[in-house]
Amino acid sequence: MELDVTGTVCPMPVLKTKKALDSLTSGDELTVTGDYKPALQNIVRFVEDKGHEVLSTEESSDGFKIVIKK
Fold first, then answer.
1. At what angle do helices 38-49 and 12-22 cross, to 10 degrees?
2. Nearest CA to 45 among 54, 37, 34, 55?
3. Domain 2-69 has what CATH class?
4. What pLDDT digit, counting tens, does each position of 21-69 carry?
5. Does 64 qualify as catalytic in the annotation?
6. What predicted TM-score, i.e. pTM, was given to this entire model?
7. What is the C-alpha separation between 24 and 42, in angstroms, rounded?
8. Which chain regions cross the lipid bilayer (predicted)?
9. What are the residue boundaries of the structural domains of the chain, listed by start?
10. Which of 2, 3, 8, 10 is catalytic?
């Protein structure tokens, strides 16, 4: 599943990530992209606190990408 949180600032990227993860089953992957860089660490922290796995993070000049395994 892919989730684009471009144009939103915290806490919305984290809340949208939570909602997307809630709709997935265990083992599914979620790719989150966005342009608000502080959200990268907030999403990673939230995901790890909830027991999910961060498979990869990527940061570029125009945003970020996180791949999460539920």
1. 40
2. 54
3. alpha beta
4. 999 999 999 999 999 999 999 999 999 999 999 999 999 999 999 999 9
5. no
6. 0.95
7. 20
8. none
9. 2-69
10. 10
